[in-house]
Amino acid sequence: MVGLTQAVLASKIPCDRSHVARVEAGTRVPHDSFAKTCDEILGTGGVLERLWGQIDWYPEVQHPDWFERRAAMDAETVELREYQERIVPGLLQTPEYAWALFSQVMSGDEVETRVHARLSRQRRFLADGGPLYIALLDESCLRNMVGSAAIMRDQCAHLLEAARHPNILIQVVPSDRPDVARPNGSMSLIELPDGHRWVYSESLDRGHFNDDPALFRRHSQAYDVLRADAPSARESGALISDAMEGYEQHGQARTRRGDLGQKQLQRQQRRQLHRNRPRYPRPRPRPRQ
Predict the structure, then answer these.
(1) Which residue positions in the chain have pLDDT lower than 70?
(2) Is cis: bond before 14, omega within 30 of 0?
(3) pTM greater than 0.85 (yes/no)
């Protein structure tokens, strides 16, 4: 027995203590990186990571009606290429990031259902021998804060961890490159086992599918040009690390400001107490006769 409390374990991972508590209670599905890190901290010799791969974390999930077709494609695709702007792709989101994202537009059990369904799509891509997944992220995905600085820091760390899988390549398109031709919006290029290819995009609560070969070829060529112009996966990893460090410093600065604010409040309270004390007249020495 290592004898670590939830708070101590969370600080070593690192993550929020509430996340550790939810994993222990069985109400939150951990990432494979969480199990691997716990193995290292607890000295369990890889047992937790092996168990993670054996458990069916998502026996029943419910996707929105308009997204079920796309989820079915993710379950069998042999190659997926995505370009994403503003937010991190669902296949690469942490539970906390997804939760914060859905909480902006819904609440209660609906958030839990959506997060559960979103994470269910990730396991196939993060498992050994998963399909080829190439994600081009506009830098805005890293800069738009979702939830909090701590959530964004953990999200960046997860991107770095996901990029270690041999089937996953992540490249970031810098925002200071006006010469780079970006697509007009986020899109996915999907290839199925039978060779059928689809272009997928989304509008508000609606998915759009097109299997016209000429359209797929045009978008595929534009995607390949963008990927060639973008920094390499290794260089992109450095950009993600820079963003992660920025969120770490942001969180530390907020903590320092909070500590300073607390000290100022305490000083104000002490001064107020001093002003509110009853005043007693001091005896004055009489003049000598």
Answers:
(1) 1, 25-29, 31, 53-60, 251, 253-289
(2) yes
(3) no
Angstrom CA distances, 114 to 92, 111, 156, stand at: 15, 5, 21
Beta carbons of 167 and 220 less than 8 angstroms apart: no
pLDDT in tens, 156-191: 999 999 999 999 999 999 988 888 888 889 999 999
